Amino acid sequence: MLKKLISITVFLLTMVTFGQKIKTITELKNENDTLIKVRETTFDNSGNLIKEITFGGFDAVLKTNRNYNQFVEYKNGQRTFEYNCEDFVSKDTCVVRSFSTYKFNPKTKIETETKYESDSLIRFIREIKHEKNITISKTNSWEFSPVKVPNYETAAVSNDTAYFDKKNRIIKRVNSDDSFKNLLVEKYKYSKKGYSCQIIGDNKIKTFNILYSKIQKLIDKNNLNSRYKSSAIYKYEIVYY
Fold this sequence. Notes:
15-stranded antiparallel sheet; 15 strands; globular
């Protein structure tokens, strides 16, 4: 049965499906010759992420299975609301852990995200501006002591600038943060097989090499903002609109 399911999954990934848009991707993990569902991601017709469920294990204390959910709402192509909740399956209840509101200024082209704790205290406020091949963001954060009213004098501030190539792939990211002594710089290089990322910061240099997986190639081709594992123990099922 497992081999049959894997064969079907591989067929779905390699099948050429022109004109169709991806609705749902289900991620499964092979554990002891059994495929366990670990994540399910849903996109709208425009390719926007609208729902993601990370399937959790059994909580021995609460005697229930836990799922972690993310829901995103849009209006006229712009994000307006997002919330994360923990799903207590046995009680059929999703407990809100955090939520965000989004406001877009059409004049300045700035999207402002305000992230709240479940008790409505503010965790951070982030301003994001997309320009040609560049995305600039500034974050005022109160992560360790969320506030009811934002006090920008006490906020931890970080600035992030990301540069993209003609294929909308990130090629460089520069981040300045209160926790770093120097700028944190990420540089990306791409090939047909994958890409490398060099991270430079605080007099340290690290390099990571990532090989493209079949699922990630399909995701990138459909311009979906999501990342999937390339390990052989993970399999994927796809549903189209």
